[in-house]
Amino acid sequence: MALQEVISASKRPNTWRTYSVGVRQFALFCQERQWQWTGQTRAEIEAAVTLFLADLWRTRETRQLRFGTIKTYLTAIKVWFFESSHGEIDLRGSTSIGQAKEGLRRLLGDKPTTKTAITLDDLAEVRSTMEWSKKIDVRDWTLLTVGLFGLLRRSELVALTWKDIRLCDTHVELFIQRSKMDIEGKGEWIPLPKLNSPVCPWKALHDLRAISSTDRLELLVGVNTRNNSWTAVPLSAAAAAKRIKVIME
What is the pTM (predicted TM-score) of this model? Predict the structure, then answer.
């Protein structure tokens, strides 16, 4: 059990989840073709993985995959075969798989998607549409301002609790328990300013604290819009992404 925990800590949970998706996609590909990978030679497995990569290109529009995701899928498949065969099947250095991967890189491109940065004017415009009697608007405004001023990832935002926040007179401090760049997991305090402006993370947190349930530690929780009440479900990273997309459209 201790060994499993140590190995699991070597990668972020999102990476392990993507790995599992990649292996499941390959398993489904083989199942549809009635191909059993157990007992196969390395050359046969290489051929199957190469065909799987070609199939990802054929179904790219329905799958909506980026090259970065395909690379992660391929890494997952290589790790799975290596570990399940106790090191006997090592697909690293495979010429056919490498050629298929390079072909996908050229066809799909490996450049990060560029996105337009949100400005203070954009935030001010969004704020003008908020209804402050609605808990969801107060929460979403906090989600936006704290996330942008703190340069936080969605996973870091939704992990915040009120214990991680110090509301001082001149500023606010956030304790980020674990971030992508914090490999050792020591955590970090991040200061946010108190601004003489409606677009202010300090004020957003004060307003949210005033209407938040005192028995809940999570900073961001779900809202029942029918009766304007908090739910018992913390906001997930996926839900936060959807809310940001809705707000900024």
Answer: 0.60
